[in-house]
Write a structure and sequence with these properties.
The complex is a heterodimer. Chain A is an alpha/beta fold. Helices cover 38% and strands 17% of the residues of chain A. The longest helix of chain A is centred in the middle third of the chain and has 17 residues, at 149-165. By secondary structure, chain B is of the alpha/beta class. Chain B has a single domain (6-92, 194-377), classed as Thiolase/Chalcone synthase (Peroxisomal Thiolase, Chain A, domain 1, 3-Layer(aba) Sandwich). In chain B, 37% of the residues lie in helices and 17% in strands. In chain B, the strands form two sheets. Chain B has a ten-stranded mixed sheet, with helices on both faces. In chain B, strand 5 and strand 6 (186-187) form a beta hairpin. Chain B is globular and about 55 Å long. The chains are: A alpha/beta, B alpha/beta.
Chain lengths: 407, 383
């Protein structure tokens, strides 16, 4: 079946904030801000949206409707979705498929999260916890650890990488150093402070190699991307800004997540690897062709192992990529120009859509002080334990029209 | 591209499914539940195999099950040859509650309307919009409490023949009318219970059906349309509209607009009788009778065996139960069995065209039409 081309035609997001910092900023307010910005960016009316997918992890059912009804009550189908930290890109991936299917020329993907302070908790204590098997394997490998479960799982993955491949704590800290530095130029970022390597490495230890400044915060925020087909782009004259989703794949856990007794596999390495392989297989591109990347640095350790999962470097060589500074301006790739989750923040439902927004701005040449020079090919990676990972590859849909609009 | 469903009803088919999952690159799975931590879908499905296929968790209150299905249908239409839609719910006892108290509740504006029109009372909140709708129907159209009770009477009777029903008990009309009042016309026996349960359907395209020689059991989804609230929900003075009437009407209009059938052509219906009052007004919203004449349909017995339609042969939500994530999928399952002639003692004779209606306040409504995909190849089983 010939797949229709699918484009991101507009993006918008709120500045991510510490939970509760903004007064009177509930999830409908966040959503309204992000959606309004995205519609304005796309220069279209809400009436043109045919379906909407809304991603959020924490909230009562139909929060998506509550958020979107403010924009108009047009009776369009609205779905509420979640997939832990990959919720935002799950919404985006669903929107892409709805446009590809042919019945909808324009679909909206919205994500928001109003988080509680402190590390992620459990609302439903009378039933099996979805990550119970992850925790069991982790205990098998490392014994029971007290403390928030996410840093424990990723901290152990970092430990395994050092043991197996010879990376050092400095490599992990350097990732955080880079992301904090990038975020200075991002007005949407929750934090915009630079730190020295010394400060990062001596911040409080959270778990093993992970210190506090190497961990993403909890955040309030929202992001929105509007997806359309070519039949929509052309009459609306959106060619100069239309970013094509060349390929996008979702992968859930493979057997190896639980069977190989590896912390790196436990946190989704193989599903990221598989999704990335599937994405590149659909195009004529290789990972080495990529210019700019937004990936899921919930913890510095995850960014490190993800370089390898995505094929940006050979397996076991991520720390060499870091040594070469091939993850920042002046190097081969610029990874997390937005500041990543570590500095920009991580409202679960919004993150995947904020990543897409950043990459669209980069490809459109609208990333201001964060602009990666000559970036033509962009890669996204958004991961949630439980789990699911979504990988997307983007480039300008009509680069010649972009040139013309500049003349 | 036509889309077909088949229900998971036997170990044989389960084995076939496992085979399909392992060999099909494009199999994707949707998983929906309303009350749960994120990625419960994966936790449930990983037991069947960890094949890396995309899994989505979604929710839409009472409409969750069919919202899952409409996503699955669209994924098949956009290129995946076989997609599963699974729903389950593990509910807490008692009436529906809230987990997040530090933020606006998605149905706050709806209940403001309830309060504005009828006054919010101390009755169970989920019953109020529907009890009020029933009251309005009686005032506007002359229906009586007996008509609402008769709907519940009918559904309990149907459930006697449904081994999947939470309750399999008959009640007299008097017992139903005299049961404790929940809200206005609604007595306890006219309200669905909370339930634990799960249901699953598998959707596929024609290529897949033919390859696996499933023509004899493939039920075609002729149309499946979702509507969310229209402006009227918050601007109306009508309790029936607040209870979702316009959403149901809009979804039905869209669904019938896609086919050459009219509501009067339908043989069997599974609709969202969370409360008897919702069944009453939904007869009209779906066009099974004229607006304002739902009680006449009840009087004629046109909602049960021997009448024009058989409505909720499964026993409906009232008697079968309502585990939110599963209900819409259980409705589809019943209709597939009816069309395939394997509904046992519940079998509606000569059922050829089936209609489904599943709604959640907040909100969303999905209306669907089904018939056998390859009637010439079907094998009608008889007990």
């Amino acid at each position: 079946m010939l797949k229709r081309r699918v484009f991101v035609i507009g993006c918008g997001m709120t500045k991510f904030e510490k939970p509760g910092r903004r007064e009177n900023f509930d999830y409908p307010d966040m959503a309204k801000e992000a959606v309004t910005k995205a519609l304005k960016d796309a220069k279209i009316d809400y009436k043109e949206i045919k379906q909407a997918i809304v991603g959020f992890c924490y909230g009562e059912s139909t929060s998506g409707q509550r958020a979107l009804y403010q924009m108009g009550m047009t009776g369009i189908p609205i779905y509420n979705v979640n997939n832990n930290c990959s919720t935002g890109s799950t919404a985006l991936y669903m929107a892409k498929q709805l446009v590809e299917g042919g019945h909808n020329d324009c679909v909206l993907a919205l994500g928001f999260e109003k988080m509680e302070r402190g590390s992620l908790g459990v609302k439903w204590t009378d039933r099996t916890f979805p990550l119970d098997k992850h925790q069991a394997i982790n205990s098998e490998l490392y014994g029971d650890s007290k403390g928030p479960r996410a840093p424990i799982l990723f901290g152990n993955a970092g430990e395994e990488h050092m043991r197996k491949y010879g990376s050092k704590p400095e490599h992990f800290a350097k990732i955080a150093y880079k992301n904090h530095k990038h975020s200075v130029n991002n007005p949407y970022s929750q934090f915009r402070d630079e730190y020295t390597m010394e400060q990062i490495m001596s911040s409080p230890v959270i778990h093993r190699v992970l210190t506090k400044l190497q961990c993403c915060p909890t955040s309030d925020g929202s992001a929105c991307c509007i997806v359309a087909n070519e039949d929509f782009v052309r009459p609306h004259k959106l060619e100069p800004q239309a970013v094509e989703i060349l390929a996008m794949e979702m992968c859930t856990d493979l057997e190896s997540t639980f069977s190989e007794k590896s912390s790196i596999k436990l946190v989704g390495y193989d599903m990221a690897k598989k999704a990335a392989e599937k994405v590149f297989a659909q195009t004529n591109y290789k990972p080495q062709d990529v210019d700019v990347v937004e990936l899921h640095d919930c913890f510095s350790a995850n960014e490190l192992i993800t370089y390898e999962a995505l094929g940006l470097c050979p397996e076991g060589k991520a720390h060499e990529l870091i040594d070469r500074n091939d993850n920042t301006y002046g190097g081969k790739y610029v990874i997390n120009p937005s500041g990543g989750l570590i500095s920009k923040g991580h409202p679960l439902g919004a993150t995947g859509l904020a990543q897409c927004s950043e990459l669209c701005w980069q490809l459109r040449g609208e990333a201001d002080k964060r602009q990666v020079k000559n970036c033509k090919l962009a890669l996204q990676h958004n991961l949630g334990l439980g789990g699911a990972v979504v990988i997307g590859l983007y480039k300008l849909g009509f680069p010649e029209s972009k040139m013309q609009s500049k003349l | 591209m036509a889309t077909f469903t088949k229900s998971l009803i036997s170990q044989q088919i389960l084995n076939q499914l496992k085979k399909c999952i392992h060999h099909s690159i494009f199999l994707k799975i949707d998983y929906k539940t309303t009350y749960s931590e994120s990625t419960c879908g994966q936790r449930a499905l990983y037991q069947l195999g960890m094949t890396g296929i995309p899994i989505y968790n979604t929710n839409n209150n009472g409409c969750t099950g069919s919202a899952t299905m409409i996503l699955a249908k669209q994924l098949v239409e956009s290129g995946s040859d076989c997609v599963m839609a699974l729903g389950f719910e593990k509910m807490e006892r008692g009436t529906l509650g809230m987990k997040y108290t530090d933020r606006v509740h998605p149905v706050d504006l709806l209940y403001k309307q309830v309060d504005k029109i009828d006054g919010f009372t101390s009755s169970a909140p989920s019953a109020q919009p529907f009890g009020n709708a029933g009251e309005e129907h009686m005032r506007k159209y002359g229906s009586k409490p007996e008509h609402f009770a008769k709907i519940a009477y009918k559904s309990y009777k149907h459930s006697l023949n449904n081994p999947y029903a939470q309750f399999q008990q008959e009640y007299t009309l008097d017992q139903i009318k005299n049961a404790p009042i929940v809200h206005r016309v609604l007595t306890k026996l006219q309200c669905c219970p909370t339930s634990d349960g799960s249901a699953c359907v598998i959707l596929a395209n024609e290529d897949f059906v033919k390859k696996h020689k499933l023509e004899n059991q493939a039920v075609e989804i002729l149309a499946m349309e979702m509507s969310t609230d229209l402006e009227s929900t918050f601007t109306t003075n009508s309790s029936m509209v607040v209870a979702g009437y316009d959403m149901s009407k809009n979804a039905a209009r869209k669904a019938f607009g896609k086919v050459n059938f009219k509501p009067q052509d339908v043989d069997v219906v599974e609709l969202h009788d969370c409360f008897s009052a919702n069944e009453m007004i939904t007869y009209e919203a779906l066009g099974l009778c004229e607006e304002g004449k739902g009680h006449k349909l009840v009087e004629r017995g046109d909602n049960t065996y021997g009448g024009k339609y058989v409505i909720n042969p499964s026993g409906g939500l009232i008697s079968k139960g309502n585990p939110l994530g599963a209900t819409g999928i259980a409705q589809c399952t019943e209709l597939c069995w009816q069309l395939r002639g394997i509904a046992g003692k519940r079998q509606v004779k000569d059922a050829k065209l089936a209609l489904q209606h599943n709604i959640g306040l907040g909100g969303a409504c999905v209306v669907s039409l089904y018939k056998l995909g390859f009637p010439e190849k079907s094998i009608k089983h008889k007990l």
